[in-house]
Specification:
heterodimer, A: 282 residues, alpha/beta, Elongation Factor Tu (Ef-tu), domain 3, Rossmann fold, seven-stranded antiparallel β-sheet, 9 helices, 27% helix, B: alpha/beta, five-stranded parallel β-sheet, 17 helices, 32% helix
């Protein structure tokens, strides 16, 4: 069992949890992920590691409520426990040797992009963080991100924070104004990562995306997370989750993401309390 | 008195019609009377040919003699002296190519039903004698076992029996490896696997789940943590694909994923359990081994209207156990033989709609001695399918190999280990089971785990291991393997 030592609601749908898992905290690197299972009937879900604290022995996850498992997880409080927590899985991001980097986060992806920006910033790169949200109420981790970069650009789809546009608009503007990036990291919805990759392709800027497909074990055993990269099938869990955005078949990845859409909706409805709207545990 | 019947005593089974709609065990096991009747068929040969077919050297005539006499508890003692997982082996060993293949009664009529008798004794003991915790006095020395499948469990059991303080590291949340995620409930009830693992715990074996060695700790760190020797039994977990067009369509599964969702994650009780599985109405399973049979029969039980095994050779070459093929046929699985998949076809939204196959005919024998399938040009046909499950084999999981550069490996990814001692190129590190041999059977993995345990004990006691001369490995000390 793994203790939840901190729980913080970042916006209406996004929750941050700090989990006590010293062996994982000791080994974790930016870009890696964990798999958790909330309870005995629960499914295994992968979540990218948002932060780790080797001294406190904790691993921080940030997740959005999108289905039954994340709903049940979000209802846990500080002091509660998660049944299974395994990691660190996947290959760590390669962040060495870059001079000027744009780290792009879409919505929840900002929380995952944040540790990458921190590491790059620490290593001396000039880091612009470009993050996008639907509106200003959904903005998360603003202070934390600001500390990890040279420039933080926050865009909102509806312009409610005074800066309307998508992250791609902001990136295009930066490049147009002469930002000579030697690396772009994009983390967020597949469609966002696809358009960032399309944008950087003609500029030949190396672009790394972080994929989070459906998987069971996270160790290469099920093959459910397969993704086509440069015409070859890769397993996101062991070969990734970072891949070259210019080589990923995003359309296939988006189709595969919908494999259990109907089943998940049915499960969430099945377990929704008709009185309170809460999701009951199993 | 010798039972001269040329046939095995019949073991009752669930009727095929009924069982194809449930996950309960197919074979129901002998009762005491039929076990004693079957045991009386054993000739008690003095040279014990059957034992040569058993990778863990169960003392077969001895235990069968005790069954014939009705001394089931004593029979259990005899079996468990060399095999700590008899309820499992009695169910999933390929006895027809091992012990029973060498049984003298098999020369005229059917061999003695050694597997069924082993199963009977194990089940009887589980029901009638409460597990007795027998923690051996600890010698205080720590050893690590990586992976809790058949190889790891067998190795851990023997080492604990020798007094070592054994810790098993398991990547999944439940121990058992392929016994839990791979082999379905109707062939090997999961409660029974957990009961056998519980026995090991009572002997003092510690099991740490959620531990992916190669990630959270590597092998050198285990040694630094005070584990004096390490056994790697991480299995052949990596699914192989066909590399044909359409393999990443929605509705294409590896057998590993399909079976893990059902067996370990209990997708059959979705939405009461959270893990879904998409079975579809028309299901093709590609491959002819036990895993293919397991996937096909599971799909049928989850409501598929028709399920086909698609295999490129003929019925004679099917690698699955004869009994599994027979059970699958009885339950109504279609065998579409001599067909080789060439393409998986999907709709515009990326879902499987069909499987294109080429007809094959058998040509000359190939290197494996089996007749090579040769394509019939222009014979492509499309079978309408909603789900395609690929069950053409697994290769070794690379996590440990990647994290342990000084471990010598084969070109295909297996770890190099000595045949007799299971010692690897890294001092103090041993390996066995599918990670060494490639995908094989439960009992061969257990045999390797036992060999490794004996060699680890010898090595820990200071006897040198010479990989090139296994005969002198143990010096003056004879190790029973």
């Amino acid at each position: 069992m793994f203790d939840i030592v901190k729980r913080q609601q970042l916006n209406q749908a996004v929750v941050l949890m700090e989990i006590s898992a010293p062996p994982i905290a000791r080994k974790a690197q930016p870009g890696q992920f964990i798999i958790l299972r909330v309870n005995d009937e629960g499914e295994r879900i992968p979540l990218t590691i948002a932060h780790f604290d080797r001294d406190r022995g904790t691993v921080t996850i940030v997740f959005q409520v999108v289905g039954k498992t994340t709903q049940v997880l979000s209802e846990l409080k500080e002091g509660d426990q998660i049944l299974d927590f395994v990691g660190p899985l996947g290959t760590a991001s390669h962040l060495e040797g870059y001079r000027r980097v744009a780290v792009i986060g879409g919505g929840l992806g900002s929380a995952i992009a944040w540790p990458q920006a921190c590491k790059l910033h620490q290593m001396g790169a000039h880091v612009d963080m470009i993050v996008g949200f639907r509106n200003k109420d959904l903005i998360i981790l603003e202070d934390e991100m600001r500390q990890c970069c040279d420039q933080l650009i926050i865009a909102t789809d509806d312009g409610s924070n005074g800066n309307q546009g998508f992250v791609t608009d902001m990136l295009k503007r930066q490049i147009g104004q002469g930002a000579d990036y030697d690396l772009v990291i994009a983390i967020g919805p597949l469609i966002m990562m696809k358009f960032v990759s399309e944008l950087t392709r003609p500029y030949k800027i190396k672009t790394i995306v972080s994929l989070n497909p459906i998987m069971v074990d996270g160790t290469g055993m099920c093959g459910g997370c397969r993704v086509t990269v440069g015409g070859e099938t890769k397993f996101a869990c062991v070969d990734g989750p970072d891949f070259d955005g210019h080589l990923v078949d995003f359309d296939e990845a988006m189709r595969r993401q919908l494999m259990y859409k109907d089943a998940e909706a049915a499960s969430q409805e099945e377990h929704r309390c008709r009185l309170t709207g809460e999701i009951r545990h199993a | 008195m010798l039972n001269r019947s040329e046939k095995k005593a019949v073991m009752p089974q669930q009727d095929p019609q009924t069982r194809s709609g449930n996950f309960r065990e197919v074979a129901l096991g002998y009762d005491e009377a039929s076990a004693m009747e079957e045991a009386a068929r054993c000739l008690q040969c003095r040279h014990k040919p059957c034992m040569n077919g058993c990778p863990v050297h169960v003392q077969i005539p001895e235990f069968i003699g005790l069954v014939a006499a009705g001394e089931f508890a004593a029979a259990y003692e005899i079996i468990t002296a060399t095999n700590r997982l008899p309820a499992i082996c009695g169910r999933v060993c390929p006895q027809e190519t091992q012990c029973e293949a060498l049984c003298v009664r098999g020369k005229k009529g059917e061999p003695v039903a050694i597997g069924r008798l082993e199963r009977f004794v194990a089940d009887w003991a589980m029901k009638n004698t409460p597990p007795q915790p027998k923690p051996r006095p600890s010698n205080g020395r720590k050893v690590a076992v990586v992976g809790s499948g058949p190889a790891g469990l067998a190795c851990a059991g023997d080492l604990a029996g020798l007094g070592y303080q054994v810790t098993i590291f398991e990547a999944f949340h439940t121990p058992g490896g392929v016994l839990m995620y791979g082999i379905p409930e109707f062939r090997l009830p999961k409660a029974l696997v957990q009961a056998e693992i519980e026995q090991l715990k009572q002997q003092g074996v510690e099991i740490q789940t959620n531990m992916v060695i190669g990630k959270v700790y590597d092998v050198d760190e285990l040694i630094e943590m005070g584990y004096e020797a390490v056994f790697l039994g991480t299995g052949a977990g990596l699914p192989m694909f066909l590399n044909i067009p359409g393999e990443n369509l929605n509705g294409v599964y590896s057998a590993n994923e399909f079976l893990t969702r059902i067996n370990l994650m209990k997708a059959y009780c979705f939405p009461d359990c959270d893990t879904p599985v998409r079975v579809g109405r028309h299901v093709a399973v590609i491959g002819g081994g036990n895993v293919a049979m397991d996937a096909a029969r599971s799909a049928l039980r989850l409501g598929a209207e028709d399920v086909s095994i698609v295999y490129r050779r003929s019925a004679d070459e099917l690698p699955a156990r004869a009994e599994e093929v027979e059970h699958a046929r009885e339950e109504g699985i279609n065998f579409r033989l001599l067909r080789n998949p060439t393409r998986i076809i999907g709709d515009e939204k990326g879902w499987v709609t069909g499987l294109e196959c080429l007809e094959m005919k058998l040509g000359e024998p190939d290197a494996s001695g089996r007749r090579r399938p040769v394509p019939v040009p222009g014979s492509e046909t499309v079978l309408p399918m909603e789900t395609v499950i690929i069950a053409i084999g697994q290769s070794p999981n690379p996590l440990i190999r990647n994290a342990t550069p000084d471990l010598e490996t084969q070109s295909w990814g297996g770890i190099v280990a000595d045949d007799e001692t299971m010692a690897t190129s890294k001092e103090g590190v041993f390996a066995g089971g599918d990670i060494v041999t490639g995908a094989a059977t439960v009992i061969l993995a257990m045999g390797a785990g036992k060999k490794a345990a004996a060699a680890m004990d010898a090595w820990l006691q200071g006897h040198p291991l010479d990989q090139t001369h296994p005969a002198v490995v143990f010096g003056t000390r004879k190790v029973e393997l």
